[in-house]
C-alpha cells in the first residue's frame, strides 16, 4: 500500500488545484470526483482510513472531499467508493 504521507500530499495537491474555484462546494466536489475517478481502490481506502482515524494533515477542501467519499460509501455501500469501477 502507498505510504499515507504520499496520499495526503496527493489529496492536498488536488484540492489546491480546485481551491481556485470560487464556490467551495464545487471545489470539494471536484476534488472528490478526481479521487473517485483516478485513484486506485487501495489508495481511496488508505485516505478514507486516514481521515476516519481522526488524523490531521489534509487541507480543508481535501478533508471535506474525503468526508464526501466516506458519506457516499456509507449510503451506497463500500464497494461504490473503494471497489473497482
Q: Supply the helix-strand structural class.
A: mainly alpha
SS field, number of helical segments: 5
Could you list the spans in which at least 5 consecutive residues all have pLDDT below 50? 79-85
Main sheet?
Answer: none
Mean pLDDT: 89
Global morphology = globular
Number of domains: 1
Radius of gyration: 12 Å
Task: Characterize the structure shown.
- The protein is mostly helical and 85 residues long.
- It has one domain (4-74).
- The protein is built from five helices and no strands.
- Helix 1 (4-18) packs across helix 4 and helix 2 (24-38) packs across helix 4 (60-76).
What's the gist of this structure?
This protein has 85 residues and is mainly α.
List the helices and strands and how they pair.
Elements: H1 4-18, H2 24-38, H3 41-52, H4 60-76, H5 79-82
Amino acid at each position: 500500500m502507498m505510504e499515507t504521507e504520499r496520499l495526503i500530499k496527493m489529496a492536498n495537491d488536488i484540492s489546491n488545484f480546485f481551491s481556485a474555484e470560487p464556490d467551495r462546494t464545487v471545489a470539494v466536489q471536484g476534488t472528490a470526483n478526481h479521487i473517485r475517478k483516478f485513484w486506485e481502490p487501495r489508495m481511496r481506502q488508505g485516505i478514507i482510513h486516514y481521515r476516519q482515524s481522526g488524523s490531521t494533515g489534509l487541507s480543508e477542501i481535501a478533508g471535506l472531499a474525503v468526508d464526501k467519499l466516506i458519506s457516499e460509501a456509507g449510503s451506497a455501500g463500500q464497494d461504490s467508493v473503494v471497489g473497482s469501477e
